[in-house]
Amino acid sequence: MRNLHDTQPSRSYYLKRREDGLRAPPKLLFWGLIVFCLLVILGIAGFVFGFREVLRPAQQQRLIDQLPFLSVLRNPTPIGGVFPTIVAPENADAALSLLDMPLDIAPPSATHSSQSAVTETASPTLQLVTATDVPTLAHVSAPTATARIATVVIPSPSPIPAIVATSFRFPTGAPRNNLPPSARIYGLLHQQQTWNNCGPATITMALSYYGWRRDQAFAADRLKPNREDKNVSPEELAAYVNEESAVKAIVRMGGTLELLKLLVANEFPVVIETGAMFEAYDWIGHYRALVAYDDAYDLFYFFDSFLGVGESAQGVSISYAEVDAHWTAFNRAFIVVYEPQRETLLRELLGHYWDVNSAAEIAFETAQIEARREPQNAFAWFNMGTSLVALERYAEAATAFDQANRTGKLPWRMHWYQYGPFAAYFHVGRYDDVMSLVRINQNNARELEETYYWQGMVQEAQGETQAAAASYRRALAYNPRYDAARQALASLN
User: Fold this and answer.
1) Strand ranges (DSSP E) for 77-207?
2) How far apart are CA 365 and CA 372, in angstroms?
3) Is 407 exposed, middle or buried (0-12, 13-18, 19+ CB in 10 A)?
4) Where does residue 105 rank: exposed (0-12), middle (13-18), buried (19+ CB within 10 A)?
5) What CATH number has the domain spanning 176-354?
6) What is the DSSP letter of 403?
7) Among the listed residues 169, 294, 287, the one whose alpha carbon sits nearest the alpha carbon of residue 230
8) Per-residue pLDDT averaged across 325-344, rounded?
9) Whole-number Å distance between alpha carbons of 291 and 184
10) Which of 82, 222, 270, 432 is most exposed, with minimal Cβ within 10 Å?
């Protein structure tokens, strides 16, 4: 007879089974855990890919506004926040020769009348126009019930005679005693910009002085049908004014602080393009509408589509020195919006600046002086190139852009806004350098129609007509109103 003890598992058997259970979990749990981890990893990777490649920048920003830590998922910007250096021909002697190159600039002269108030036949009294004096323009409609239009309007004072600086000198500026110590333009309506919309918002502010009541959405629809378009040029803003309104606009480069004050004192709305670094943002291009200046504090006051209207709605205050420092990045370009009947007065005030080529020559001379004083000033060299492109001196412009590039100090977004290097390199046959700029822009911002236009220009020049047509169509897909691409495509056909 078998012993009962022999037919039952021993204590040691149970202990061994227990130890085995602790050491080896069930296979289903093991593989389930592995699959879960893989799904988590794939989910994170998919979210990062979707955030970077699927979401548009405006959608990314909305998520970041709610969850700030998501900002780390943005595509990395160039190291140091500067534009990647492209290989350029080493020609230091040619660059240095630009520092002493004369351009036969028209000599400054006192072309203004000595009277303090000028009489024009089209406008007998030539009083400063205020919000209560202007006629209603075409396209005027009641403001929409939207937060995009702020109802900030500074009350208008009594009109005063127009002011002309009797000994204004270009480009170094005029003695301050020829201008009032302070002046203000009254009647502008502020617009708080929507996403990526400072250009349409700011030009809308300037137009509001003359009774314009369309909002920035109306301007954006015509200036940048693609919401993600990063660049609306000063020329595009001026064309919008000239085509859509009853007033006119011009763009010039090489302005001075004294010229800005002279225009404000005579009630001409002015928009300038500057560099800016807002809190939590990299360097960007930004438009501002000038509304006042005050010599007692060396301050300009702006209606800013991003920062608002400042304390007591008097404008965001920025020192003269800071304005000039940030304005330099865009060759001190400015837009003047004016009534046709005041064009004679505007010509008088602008002097040599009224002529586009003379303004470019003045801008070149200013940049030349700054580059002599500070040879590593990237903006000075870049501005020399921009001015030379305007004068169609492309070989010298390319040399200046090369030197700006060699400094390694250009902000990485610089070529989103300014396409002088594309034009200069293209016209001297440096197609590889144009395509280097194209690739850098496409890596950082795909939806810039100008980039695809210049890509198409190079492809066409190299006989790749089908590729060129595709590039022009891509540019038009981003901005159907882009005339340069439309004309280039038509010429291919």
Assistant:
1) 182-184
2) 11
3) middle
4) middle
5) 3.90.70.10
6) H
7) 287
8) 97
9) 6
10) 432
Residue given tokens 């969850």 in the structure block:
67
Tokens matching residue 314: 């008097």
Please tell me the distance from the alpha carbon of residue 393 to that of residue 104, in angstroms, as a whole number.
14
> How does DSSP classify residue 178?
G
Amino acid type, 129: V
Mean pLDDT of the chain: 79
Which residues make beta-bridge pairs with 273?
287
Amino acid in the structure at residue 82: V
State how far the Cα of 285 lies from the Cα of 411, in Å rounded to an integer.
10
pLDDT digits (tens, 9 = 90+) for 231-277: 899 999 999 999 999 999 999 999 999 999 999 999 999 999 999 88
Give the closest residue to 349 by CA, choosing from 242, 264, 289, 249: 264
3-class DSSP string for 72-83: HHCCCCCHHHEC
The residue type of 94 is: A
Burial of 469 (0-12, 13-18, 19+ CB in 10 A): middle
Amino acid at 476: L
Answer yes or no: are the C-beta atoms of 258 and 270 closer than 8 Å: no
Q: Collapse the DSSP code of 250 into the 3-class scheme (helix H, G, I; strand E, B; otherwise coil) and give the result.
A: strand
Residue 238: its H or E element: helix 234-244
**Angle at 357 (CA atoms; ends 400, 437), nearest 5 degrees:** 35
C-beta neighbour count of 7 within 10 angstroms:
7
User: The tokens of 180 are what?
Assistant: 């009032």
- What pLDDT is recorded for position 444? 82
Q: Which two tokens stand for residue 80?
A: 């140091």
Q: Determine which helix (DSSP H) or strand (DSSP E) holds 317, and give its type and residue range.
A: strand 316-319
Q: Where are the domains of the chain?
A: 18-79, 176-354
Beta bridge partners of 239: none
The pTM for the full model equals 0.74
Which burial class, exposed, middle or buried, applies to 115 when counting CB atoms under 10 A from its CB (0-12, 13-18, 19+)? Answer: exposed
Q: Is-cis flag, bond preceding 159, omega within 30?
A: no
pLDDT tens sequence across 64-97: 555 555 555 556 555 545 556 665 666 667 777 8
User: Rounded CA gap, 291 and 130, in Å?
Assistant: 13
